[in-house]
Structure formats: structure tokens, C-alpha cells
């Protein structure tokens, strides 16, 4: 049986677009790392211990994902690029069928 996937589009700071099929249950960070999208580093491997998977969730999707935890909000204070509305750590966004079509923009830098 095939694993379900959702299409996530990563938009790099320079405007380059990378539509990627991400397996349900994987994080948005895992999808980027597994498909070598350069704008996501994920230095801690998704352990919520750094901010190198910072992304900006497109405004149309912000209300469709779980809100950030207190720990995530604290880690977002450590981003190297400015926080904006929709700032999230991509390791904390679990992909599901409901997120098929999700668009995330990547910051200029993760360090």
C-alpha cells in the first residue's frame, strides 16, 4: 500500500519554488531536508533545540495548522532572520492530507 503524500511548496528567499511531495506524518522540515531544499537546515534534526528550520507559513495556511507550542515560541526568539506573521519552525508542522497544497517561504538565512 502506498503512503499518502501532500504537496508542499517551498519558496526560497530568491523566489525559487520547489514543489515537493511530503509523506503524511513527516514534518515540513523533513520534507525539505529529504528533497535537498537548501533554505532549511534543521541542524538539531527536528528536536526543537534550534531555529535553523525557520519558515514563513503562507497567510492562507496559518489557521490550518496547529498553533505553536510555548517551547516553539521561545525557540522562534532565536531566528537569524526577522520573525514575521506566519513564522514557524518547520520541524513542528506535521504534514497531513489537510495540508495538501501548503506553501512556506524560506528566510534569507538560517544562521
What structural class do you assign from the helix and strand content? alpha+beta
> How is the CATH topology named?
Ubiquitin-like (UB roll)
Helix content: 10-25%
Count of distinct structural domains = 1
Radius of gyration: 13 Å
Strand order, sheet with most strands: 2-1-5-3-4
If you had to describe this structure to a student in words, what would you say it looks like?
It is built from 2 helices and 5 strands. It has 111 residues and is of the alpha+beta class. It has a single domain, classed as Ubiquitin-like (UB roll), CATH 3.10.20.30. The longest helix has 7 residues.
What's this model, at a glance?
By secondary structure, the chain is α+β, with helices and mostly antiparallel strands. The chain has helices at residues 28-34, 70-75; strands spanning 5-11, 17-23, 54-57, 87-89, 102-105.
Amino acid at each position: 500500500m502506498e503512503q499518502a503524500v501532500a504537496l508542499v511548496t517551498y519558496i526560497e528567499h530568491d523566489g525559487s519554488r520547489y514543489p515537493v511531495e511530503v509523506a503524511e506524518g513527516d514534518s515540513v522540515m523533513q520534507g525539505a531536508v529529504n528533497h535537498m531544499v537548501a533554505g532549511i537546515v534543521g541542524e538539531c534534526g527536528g528536536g526543537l533545540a534550534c531555529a535553523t528550520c525557520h519558515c514563513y507559513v503562507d497567510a492562507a495556511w496559518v489557521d490550518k495548522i496547529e498553533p505553536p507550542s510555548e517551547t516553539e515560541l521561545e525557540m522562534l526568539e532565536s531566528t537569524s532572520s526577522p520573525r514575521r506573521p506566519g513564522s514557524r519552525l518547520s520541524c513542528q508542522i506535521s504534514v497531513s492530507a489537510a495540508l495538501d497544497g501548503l506553501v512556506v517561504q524560506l528566510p534569507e538565512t538560517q544562521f
